[in-house]
UniProtKB/TrEMBL annotation:
Species per Swiss-Prot/TrEMBL record: Sebaldella termitidis (strain ATCC 33386 / NCTC 11300)
Protein name: MIP family channel protein
GO terms, molecular function: water channel activity
Main location: membrane
Keyword Chloroplast part of the UniProt annotation: no
Highest taxon, organism lineage: Bacteria
Lineage of the organism: Bacteria, Fusobacteriati, Fusobacteriota, Fusobacteriia, Fusobacteriales
Subcellular location: Cell membrane
């Protein structure tokens, strides 16, 4: 159970500080600051819980890890359940804090992902789908490579976190950057619009993660045993 508690706490931290930076500090830190809030959250959790659960804190990573033989099939659903619970708790806490301000409106949301009219750069559904698929593939592929037993794993957390920063720098205006169904699920529960678009942020990140796991396992010459 320690693995699942760690995944819940790790996802909670990612959503609290990542999405929280959007809600509480967007005007102060800007897009770059938000990107680093998500990335540094990953760095912090990688070095805190990596030795316990592998610090997936993302269903797409868990799926890719299973496909590449890093975890057993029986662990997949408990990992994902723990991640979703952590994301929902963090989103509820953000809402509780934000609603205490007279300047907060439910229309402001909780840093949810989206696309189309009125969101970010108003990119259409096709642009959003392609970005989430490709960005998640790259993210999960980097994670699998950085945490491989033959890699210099001392720097894995930093590499993974900086990769997420890079993805956010180019992707915030496209979808707000999911690459993580749990990160999208929590905030979407508090927004009708985001809930209607949630399907994209489940399907395409999971597809990207699965593809990364398959490519890493089948198309490269690495031994995929961790």
């Amino acid at each position: 159970m320690k693995k699942y508690y760690a995944e819940c706490l790790g996802t909670f931290t990612l959503v609290l500080f990542g999405c929280g930076s959007v809600v509480f500090a967007k005007n102060e830190v800007g897009q770059l600051g938000i990107a680093f809030a998500f990335g540094l959250s990953i760095v912090a959790m990688a070095y805190s819980i990596g030795s316990v659960s592998g610090c997936h804190i993302n269903p797409a990573v868990t799926l890719g890890a299973w496909i590449s033989n890093r975890i057993e099939k029986k662990e997949v659903l408990p990992y994902i359940a723990a991640q979703l619970i952590g994301a929902v708790i963090a989103s509820g806490l953000i809402y509780m804090i934000a609603s205490g301000s007279p300047y907060y409106s439910n229309l402001d949301g909780l840093g949810q992902n989206g696309f189309g009219y009125g969101y970010g750069g108003e990119y259409n559904v096709y642009s959003a789908a392609v970005f989430e698929l490709v960005a998640t593939f790259i993210f999960v592929f980097v994670i699998l490579g950085a945490t491989h037993k033959d890699s210099n794993t001392k720097f894995a957390g930093l590499v993974i976190g900086l990769t997420l920063v890079m993805i956010h720098i180019i992707g915030i205006q496209i979808t707000g950057v999911s690459v993580n169904p749990a990160r999208s699920f929590g905030p979407a529960l508090f927004s009708t619009t985001a809930l209607a678009q949630l399907w994209l942020f489940i399907i395409f990140p999971l597809a990207g993660g699965a593809l990364a796991g398959y490519v890493y396992k089948k198309c490269l010459i690495f031994d995929t045993e961790s």
